[in-house]
Amino acid sequence: MLPDLRAWVFAVRTFAGAMLALWCAMALDLDRPYWAMATAYIVAQPLTGSMRSKGLYRLIGTVVGAVVVVGLVPLLVDAPELLTAALASWTGLCLFVALLDRTPRSYVFMLAGYSAAIIGFPATADPSGIFSIALARVEEITLGIVCTIVVGSIVFPRPIGPVVAARIDVWRADAERWALEALRGAVNPDPRRADRRRLAADAIEIGQLSSHLAFDASNYQGTTRWVDALQRRVLTLLPVLSSIEDRIAALRRLGPLSPDREQALAEVAAWVVERPPPDALRARLRALAPAGGGALSWPEALWTTLVLRLVEMIDLLWDTSQLRAAIAAGDHAPPPLVVPEGAIAGRVLHRDPGLAALSGFAAALAVGLVVAFWIGSGWSEGAIAAQMAAVGASFFAVQDDPVPAILRFTGWALVACVVDAAYLFAILPIAHDFEMLVLALAPAFVFYGLLIAMPATTPIGMGLGVNGATLLALQATYAADAASFGGSVIALTVGLGTAALVTALIRSVGAEWSARRLLRASWADLVQAAKGGADRSALASRLLDRMGLLVPRLAAVAPGADRAAADLLAELRVGVNIVELQQGRADLPPAAANAVARALRALSGWFQRRRHRGGPTPPPALLAALDAALRSVWEAGAVQERALLNLVGIRQALFPAAPPPDPA
């Protein structure tokens, strides 16, 4: 794929910011002006909001790392072994916290970790200069960030707001298409089902993008909370749509619907397309719901709960329309919303402390091994190797198996070394002023910017641009040394290679292993929900987040992976219904409350067994417990419609092919 005009603008703009930072650093006579140049390529992002937020987070992380080093070095100046161990441990601790955070803010913690290594390890040879080294690092990083952001904000900036809005529109359209297909009884082909399961994965990406809106230069800057509210409503809509699709399919399997019910579904489908005020449609739907009581009629129970879910869908879609209009207008005033905040999925993300701790330990161990070799051998370039071990072990730790990415990064770093060697020993000696230096660097570094601008080659461009700028080690005067350059290349290879080796031995896991871990975490949450005490919105948010994480992993490991993703969506519905059942159980008559309690205990036992031993099929005893609870709640009458909704939802999610419950 060839670069387009936007890629060329980004590449030239990034190079201009890097050269401005380099010129300012040289003019101010800073110790390592190449740090400012390298920072320009680290911070550079095609979207203005992302660039500004990344720059701010990098600055904060660098300052925190510098403060920690300035505190540690004087304290442990007489014990270099303890000092290096403390720096390695700090790197691991910061990586642990960064992996738990799972937001763009996590960049602060990761930077605080390996910035301390970058600043601290060279100072072990001369601890008295630690403050000067730390101050220089902060100054040069700040200079690189400021120059890049200024140039990027002035020269053809690309706001992130319209990009987020376009993604939201596509996302909403997919959800609305799902609603229409379910209401019209359309056949659900496998490709369409896979697209539906990806809605949660796309939501994670949109959430990451929207987190940068506060830093944007467009009129969307003040609408971050509306984007967040819209995202959470569409996420809440996913299990509702799944329930609607499931109930309509179950009703049609039992026989044709009555004309008035078919007409009601057609009216809802027309409303989804036209979106007028929904008050009249809500009233018509509720008028079609039976009252309940007496012997359990399964078709009536399905229709009653379908009506409740249709009303929820209408309210959620109405809110998304109001929020989208507010976002498009850049409106800071709250739009009129129907669904209360407590009824929608929150922003609670899945976190895996065990895997994060393993990643932090691997990073600390990799750095510690390099430092031990450095101290034992007296290697003059050992500090560079320790720095690169910290960077390599931290930068890719978010992946299931970071080793291939570390090795690719190492390979492209070595390519950058070859290019730098040509510059240092053949081209730069004939560049006698800064203008000639800029002309000489332009071909390689504009090309690196083009690679960064295209998503398919971004890792390659980062490996070339950042390492290329760092290893050139440009100063105000030409001072290239072949032995020093060769030692730096070897140190880079040793540091990154050690990070890859330790990660492969301790931390690397496959997509299948990660998928199983995500599933077990979801089952553990369902066990807790069935025992009581879970929060509905928090549980729904975690389960939706896990589904978004699970879908791409399952697609990478098995041809039938979409089936597992579908099961997770069903279990999401189960979880939400369980929490609502727990909350409403106290309002049930004693007989119904006792039957619901028995069903909840059966659910807890089933998910507990599944968590420890797996098992694809829920047992018949669980179906019997759910049917007994259904009969008790149905006999209690229409005032218990929410409990009926929850029990029908659980039964349909776990036993979609089961025959109707026995009314006796």
Topology summary:
Layout: H1 5-27, H2 33-43, H3 48-75, H4 80-101, H5 106-123, H6 130-154, H7 161-183, H8 190-210, H9 224-254, H10 259-274, H11 279-287, H12 298-329, H13 353-377, H14 382-395, H15 403-427, H16 434-453, H17 458-472, H18 482-506, H19 511-531, H20 536-555, H21 561-584, H22 590-613, H23 620-635, H24 641-654
What does this structure look like?
This protein has 24 helices and no strands. The chain is mainly alpha-helical. Helix 7 runs antiparallel to helix 10 (259-274), helix 8 (190-210) runs antiparallel to helix 9 (224-254) and helix 9 packs antiparallel against helix 12 (298-329). It is elongated and about 90 Å long. The N and C termini lie far apart (66 Å). The mean pLDDT is 86.
- What are the low-pLDDT stretches, counting only 5+ consecutive residues below 50? none
* Main beta-sheet annotation: none
Number of continuous helical runs: 24
- SSE order: HHHHHHHHHHHHHHHHHHHHHHHH
| Strand residue percentage | under 5%
Overview in brief:
This protein has 664 residues and is an all-alpha fold. Helix content is 76%, strand content 0%.
